Amino acid sequence: MAARNYGQHSGVVHALELVGERWALLIVRDLLVGPRRYTDLKAGLPRIPTNILSSRLKELQEGGVIRRAPLLRSIVYELTAVGRELEPIILALGRWGLQSMGEAADDDIISAESLTVDLRAAFHPDAAGSLPATSYLVHIDDVTLALDVDGSTLSIAPRSDLPAVDLEFSTGPEIYRILSGALSPEEAIDDGIVRIIAGNPPLLDRFTSTFTHAQQAVAF
After folding, report:
1. CA distance 55 to 172
2. To 10 degrees, what angle do helices 50-62 and 24-33 make?
3. Contact predicate 139/171, CB 8 Å
Protein backbone atom coordinates (compact mmCIF):
# COMPACT_ATOMS: atom_id res chain seq x y z
CA MET A 1 0.00 0.00 0.00
CA ALA A 2 1.16 3.56 -0.68
CA ALA A 3 2.48 5.40 2.34
CA ARG A 4 0.22 8.43 1.86
CA ASN A 5 -2.89 8.46 4.02
CA TYR A 6 -5.58 11.06 3.43
CA GLY A 7 -7.38 10.49 6.72
CA GLN A 8 -10.78 9.87 5.16
CA HIS A 9 -12.92 6.76 4.91
CA SER A 10 -13.99 7.00 1.26
CA GLY A 11 -13.94 4.92 -1.88
CA VAL A 12 -12.20 7.67 -3.84
CA VAL A 13 -9.62 8.06 -1.08
CA HIS A 14 -8.96 4.31 -1.00
CA ALA A 15 -8.54 4.27 -4.78
CA LEU A 16 -6.04 7.14 -4.59
CA GLU A 17 -4.13 5.35 -1.87
CA LEU A 18 -3.83 2.38 -4.21
CA VAL A 19 -3.02 4.08 -7.52
CA GLY A 20 -2.77 7.81 -6.82
CA GLU A 21 0.97 8.05 -6.32
CA ARG A 22 2.96 9.61 -9.17
CA TRP A 23 3.70 7.16 -12.04
CA ALA A 24 1.34 4.48 -10.71
CA LEU A 25 -1.41 4.96 -13.30
CA LEU A 26 1.14 5.17 -16.10
CA ILE A 27 2.48 1.78 -15.06
CA VAL A 28 -1.09 0.46 -15.15
CA ARG A 29 -1.59 2.12 -18.55
CA ASP A 30 1.40 0.32 -20.03
CA LEU A 31 0.32 -3.01 -18.53
CA LEU A 32 -3.09 -2.61 -20.17
CA VAL A 33 -1.25 -3.24 -23.45
CA GLY A 34 0.17 -6.50 -22.09
CA PRO A 35 2.60 -8.00 -19.57
CA ARG A 36 5.92 -6.17 -19.31
CA ARG A 37 9.32 -6.89 -17.83
CA TYR A 38 10.88 -4.38 -15.44
CA THR A 39 13.20 -3.24 -18.24
CA ASP A 40 10.25 -2.78 -20.61
CA LEU A 41 8.47 -0.57 -18.10
CA LYS A 42 11.62 1.47 -17.52
CA ALA A 43 12.14 1.93 -21.26
CA GLY A 44 8.54 3.09 -21.73
CA LEU A 45 8.81 5.53 -18.82
CA PRO A 46 12.37 6.83 -19.27
CA ARG A 47 12.08 9.62 -16.68
CA ILE A 48 10.99 7.41 -13.81
CA PRO A 49 13.82 6.86 -11.30
CA THR A 50 14.59 3.18 -10.80
CA ASN A 51 13.91 3.36 -7.06
CA ILE A 52 10.49 4.91 -7.69
CA LEU A 53 9.63 2.27 -10.30
CA SER A 54 10.57 -0.47 -7.83
CA SER A 55 8.50 1.20 -5.09
CA ARG A 56 5.45 1.64 -7.29
CA LEU A 57 5.59 -1.95 -8.47
CA LYS A 58 5.80 -3.15 -4.88
CA GLU A 59 2.88 -0.92 -3.82
CA LEU A 60 0.72 -2.02 -6.75
CA GLN A 61 1.44 -5.66 -5.95
CA GLU A 62 0.58 -5.18 -2.29
CA GLY A 63 -2.65 -3.47 -3.34
CA GLY A 64 -3.63 -6.42 -5.55
CA VAL A 65 -3.49 -4.32 -8.75
CA ILE A 66 -0.61 -6.17 -10.43
CA ARG A 67 1.29 -9.40 -9.95
CA ARG A 68 4.55 -10.97 -11.01
CA ALA A 69 4.34 -13.92 -13.40
CA PRO A 70 6.91 -16.16 -15.09
CA LEU A 71 7.29 -15.84 -18.85
CA LEU A 72 9.80 -18.09 -20.56
CA ARG A 73 13.06 -17.37 -18.72
CA SER A 74 12.07 -14.03 -17.25
CA ILE A 75 9.60 -12.45 -14.86
CA VAL A 76 6.94 -10.05 -16.09
CA TYR A 77 4.42 -7.81 -14.40
CA GLU A 78 0.79 -8.11 -15.38
CA LEU A 79 -2.53 -6.72 -14.22
CA THR A 80 -4.76 -8.76 -11.97
CA ALA A 81 -8.50 -8.92 -12.57
CA VAL A 82 -8.81 -6.04 -10.11
CA GLY A 83 -6.20 -4.08 -12.03
CA ARG A 84 -7.97 -4.60 -15.34
CA GLU A 85 -11.04 -2.92 -13.87
CA LEU A 86 -9.06 0.31 -14.19
CA GLU A 87 -9.17 0.07 -18.00
CA PRO A 88 -12.34 2.13 -18.60
CA ILE A 89 -11.13 4.69 -16.05
CA ILE A 90 -7.78 5.14 -17.80
CA LEU A 91 -9.42 5.30 -21.23
CA ALA A 92 -11.83 7.94 -19.91
CA LEU A 93 -8.89 9.93 -18.54
CA GLY A 94 -7.22 9.65 -21.94
CA ARG A 95 -10.31 10.96 -23.73
CA TRP A 96 -10.54 13.84 -21.28
CA GLY A 97 -6.86 14.67 -21.68
CA LEU A 98 -6.97 14.57 -25.49
CA GLN A 99 -9.34 17.53 -25.50
CA SER A 100 -6.77 19.98 -24.14
CA MET A 101 -3.32 18.64 -25.05
CA GLY A 102 -0.85 21.30 -26.09
CA GLU A 103 2.23 20.97 -28.26
CA ALA A 104 4.78 18.29 -27.39
CA ALA A 105 8.00 19.42 -25.72
CA ASP A 106 11.22 18.78 -27.62
CA ASP A 107 12.20 15.94 -25.29
CA ASP A 108 8.76 14.34 -24.99
CA ILE A 109 8.58 10.79 -26.29
CA ILE A 110 5.76 8.72 -27.73
CA SER A 111 5.91 5.07 -26.75
CA ALA A 112 4.09 2.19 -28.36
CA GLU A 113 2.17 1.70 -25.10
CA SER A 114 1.15 5.35 -24.71
CA LEU A 115 0.04 5.65 -28.33
CA THR A 116 -1.86 2.36 -28.19
CA VAL A 117 -3.86 3.46 -25.15
CA ASP A 118 -4.46 6.96 -26.56
CA LEU A 119 -5.79 5.48 -29.81
CA ARG A 120 -8.03 3.15 -27.84
CA ALA A 121 -9.25 6.14 -25.84
CA ALA A 122 -9.99 8.11 -29.02
CA PHE A 123 -11.72 5.18 -30.76
CA HIS A 124 -15.44 5.61 -31.47
CA PRO A 125 -17.02 2.17 -31.87
CA ASP A 126 -20.41 3.65 -32.83
CA ALA A 127 -18.86 5.63 -35.70
CA ALA A 128 -16.68 2.71 -36.78
CA GLY A 129 -19.61 0.32 -36.76
CA SER A 130 -21.17 2.04 -39.78
CA LEU A 131 -17.94 2.06 -41.83
CA PRO A 132 -16.29 -0.66 -43.91
CA ALA A 133 -13.57 -2.71 -42.23
CA THR A 134 -10.27 -0.86 -42.64
CA SER A 135 -6.65 -1.59 -41.83
CA TYR A 136 -4.07 1.10 -41.13
CA LEU A 137 -0.32 1.14 -40.66
CA VAL A 138 0.64 4.23 -38.68
CA HIS A 139 4.21 5.48 -38.20
CA ILE A 140 4.64 7.98 -35.37
CA ASP A 141 8.29 8.90 -34.92
CA ASP A 142 9.95 5.58 -33.97
CA VAL A 143 6.66 3.79 -33.24
CA THR A 144 4.79 1.77 -35.86
CA LEU A 145 1.39 0.30 -35.09
CA ALA A 146 -0.98 -1.82 -37.14
CA LEU A 147 -4.62 -0.92 -36.58
CA ASP A 148 -7.47 -3.13 -37.74
CA VAL A 149 -10.97 -1.74 -37.44
CA ASP A 150 -13.78 -4.18 -38.13
CA GLY A 151 -17.16 -2.81 -37.20
CA SER A 152 -16.99 -1.67 -33.59
CA THR A 153 -13.91 -3.81 -32.88
CA LEU A 154 -10.41 -2.32 -32.77
CA SER A 155 -7.19 -4.34 -32.74
CA ILE A 156 -3.81 -2.64 -32.30
CA ALA A 157 -0.43 -4.34 -32.46
CA PRO A 158 3.19 -3.40 -33.10
CA ARG A 159 4.11 -3.74 -36.75
CA SER A 160 4.59 -7.27 -37.98
CA ASP A 161 4.55 -8.95 -41.38
CA LEU A 162 1.16 -7.96 -42.67
CA PRO A 163 -0.67 -8.15 -45.96
CA ALA A 164 -1.22 -4.86 -47.76
CA VAL A 165 -3.14 -2.39 -45.61
CA ASP A 166 -5.81 0.03 -46.79
CA LEU A 167 -3.84 3.09 -45.67
CA GLU A 168 -0.26 3.57 -44.49
CA PHE A 169 0.87 7.00 -43.31
CA SER A 170 3.50 8.66 -41.17
CA THR A 171 3.43 11.70 -38.94
CA GLY A 172 4.84 12.91 -35.61
CA PRO A 173 3.43 14.23 -32.34
CA GLU A 174 0.97 16.22 -34.47
CA ILE A 175 -1.11 13.05 -34.52
CA TYR A 176 -2.61 14.42 -31.33
CA ARG A 177 -3.85 17.52 -33.15
CA ILE A 178 -5.75 15.14 -35.43
CA LEU A 179 -7.07 13.06 -32.54
CA SER A 180 -8.30 16.20 -30.75
CA GLY A 181 -10.07 17.47 -33.87
CA ALA A 182 -7.88 20.59 -34.04
CA LEU A 183 -6.43 19.58 -37.42
CA SER A 184 -8.42 18.27 -40.37
CA PRO A 185 -7.10 15.48 -42.61
CA GLU A 186 -6.90 17.85 -45.56
CA GLU A 187 -4.86 20.38 -43.57
CA ALA A 188 -2.59 17.64 -42.26
CA ILE A 189 -1.79 16.41 -45.77
CA ASP A 190 -1.54 19.87 -47.36
CA ASP A 191 0.80 21.12 -44.61
CA GLY A 192 3.03 18.05 -44.87
CA ILE A 193 2.20 16.97 -41.33
CA VAL A 194 0.91 13.62 -42.58
CA ARG A 195 2.71 11.76 -45.38
CA ILE A 196 0.71 9.10 -47.18
CA ILE A 197 2.96 6.12 -47.89
CA ALA A 198 0.49 3.70 -49.44
CA GLY A 199 -3.21 3.41 -50.01
CA ASN A 200 -5.95 5.88 -50.79
CA PRO A 201 -5.38 9.36 -49.20
CA PRO A 202 -9.12 10.04 -48.69
CA LEU A 203 -9.10 7.13 -46.21
CA LEU A 204 -7.48 9.54 -43.76
CA ASP A 205 -10.98 11.02 -43.45
CA ARG A 206 -12.22 7.60 -42.40
CA PHE A 207 -9.41 7.39 -39.86
CA THR A 208 -10.46 10.69 -38.30
CA SER A 209 -14.13 9.65 -38.35
CA THR A 210 -13.07 6.61 -36.35
CA PHE A 211 -10.58 8.17 -33.96
CA THR A 212 -11.03 11.94 -33.72
CA HIS A 213 -12.36 12.97 -30.35
CA ALA A 214 -14.62 15.61 -31.90
CA GLN A 215 -16.07 13.14 -34.42
CA GLN A 216 -16.23 15.91 -36.98
CA ALA A 217 -14.80 14.16 -40.01
CA VAL A 218 -16.93 12.83 -42.86
CA ALA A 219 -17.24 9.06 -43.21
CA PHE A 220 -16.67 7.35 -46.55
Report:
1. 33
2. 80
3. yes
